[in-house]
Structure formats: C-alpha cells, structure tokens
C-alpha cells in the first residue's frame, strides 16, 4: 500500500483576512504543519495545491469582473499568480511537500486533479507513477476544493480518507453536506490523531 497526502489550497487568500478567507483557515495551516512533523514519513508522496490564477483575465469567467460575484460560479479576485494572496499560509511548513501543484491558470479549477506541477506533470500521472492506492486529504475549503479533490480521487480509484480536524470550510452547512456526500461515495471521515 502506497499512500499520499493532499494539502489543498492552504493559501493566504483562503485564510482569515484573505480575499475569500474562511474561519479556522490559519488554525488548519498550523495543525497540518504539526501533523507533518509527526507523520510525513507515513507517506510516499505529499502533494500541496494552490490556486494560481492569471492576473490579466477573468480566468474563464471565474473572477467576477462585470457584476458582483455569485459565490457559486463567480468569485472575487483571489490567488493571483505571484501575489501574497496566492502564497501558502505562513503557518504551513512546505519543506516536506514532494509535489507543488498549481491550478486555475486561465480557467476555473477546484480539484487538485485539474492542476499540474511546474514541470507539467499531472496528479493522475504522479499517483500512477508512485503506485498510490490511498490518499489522505487536508486543507481548504471543505465544501469546494477539498470536496472536488476527494471526489476525483475516488473516481480515480483511490481509497480516500479525509481528516475532519485538518479541513476548514466556507459554511458549516455546506461543509457538513460535502462530508456526508463524500462519505456516501466511499471516503472515510476520521480525525488525524
């Protein structure tokens, strides 16, 4: 059994004070770092994703430019490539990350599977190359990018576990619904301890 850890979008713009900050985001960043200190060796590979949107476009309609955002299909400008908002949160230590994945360059993207490494490798290929059978998932936001990444991992045939104490969501109701949906699809919901 080869295991990977996904750290989804633990970025400044998705934590408190950011363009789309969620409550508890900074605490999740620090908690993931503590988890990595104790458990990084349990994983064959560790993936960390970031939204990495183009500055000079609406990214396929993802950024609301002509009307207020609807927070379903359109969003305020966030995680623009090369800005502080797109950086990992400072409480997240990334020294144990094997692959850094950028997603949403010119297009809407929620799942880590929609991204690539700087060298152009896809998550699908990297998982296959490393014989990954199991994926543990952490990050932000439970009800959007964590949900999309977990669904894609399940569809790719991996066994998925979501650490419920290492995720933060936009809203309690939609986060609970996302976790219930993922459990129904076969994901295991557990605390990291």
From TrEMBL:
One Gene Ontology molecular-function label: nicotinamidase activity
Keywords (alphabetical) are: Hydrolase, Metal-binding, Pyridine nucleotide biosynthesis
Q: Domain of life here?
A: Bacteria
What is the name attached to this protein's record?
A: nicotinamidase
Gene Ontology biological process terms, A to Z = pyridine nucleotide biosynthetic process
Give the family, as the similarity comment puts it: Belongs to the isochorismatase family.
PANTHER family to which the protein is assigned, alphabetical: LD05707P, PYRAZINAMIDASE/NICOTINAMIDASE
Question: What InterPro entries does this protein's entry cite?
Answer: Isochorismatase-like_dom, Isochorismatase-like_sf, Isochorismatase_Nicotinamidase
Q: Which residues form a coiled coil?
A: none
State the top-level EC class.
hydrolase
Query: What Enzyme Commission number(s) does the record list for this chain?
Result: 3.5.1.19
Hey, which pathway is this one from? Cofactor biosynthesis; nicotinate biosynthesis; nicotinate from nicotinamide: step 1/1
Presence of keyword Transmembrane helix? no
Which residue intervals define the domain Isochorismatase-like in the entry?
4-189
Keyword Signal in record: no
């Amino acid at each position: 059994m080869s295991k990977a850890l996904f750290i989804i979008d633990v970025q400044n713009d998705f934590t408190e004070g950011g363009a789309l900050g969620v409550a508890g985001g900074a605490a999740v960043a620090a908690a993931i770092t503590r988890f990595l200190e104790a458990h990084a060796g349990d994983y064959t590979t560790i993936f960390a994703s970031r939204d990495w949107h183009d500055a000079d476009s609406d990214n396929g309609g993802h950024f609301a430019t002509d009307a207020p955002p609807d927070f379903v299909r359109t969003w305020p400008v966030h995680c623009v490539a090369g800005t502080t908002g797109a950086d990992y949160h400072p409480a997240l230590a990334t020294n144990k990350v094997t692959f850094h994945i950028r997603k949403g360059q010119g297009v809407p993207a929620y799942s880590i599977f929609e991204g690539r490494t700087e060298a152009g490798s896809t998550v699908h290929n990297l998982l296959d190359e490393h014989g990954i059978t199991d994926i543990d998932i952490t990050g932000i936001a439970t009800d959007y990018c964590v949900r999309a990444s977990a669904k894609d991992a399940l569809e790719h045939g991996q066994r998925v576990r979501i650490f419920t104490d290492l995720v933060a969501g936009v809203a309690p109701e939609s986060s609970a619904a996302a976790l219930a949906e993922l459990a129904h699809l076969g994901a295991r919901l557990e605390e990291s301890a």
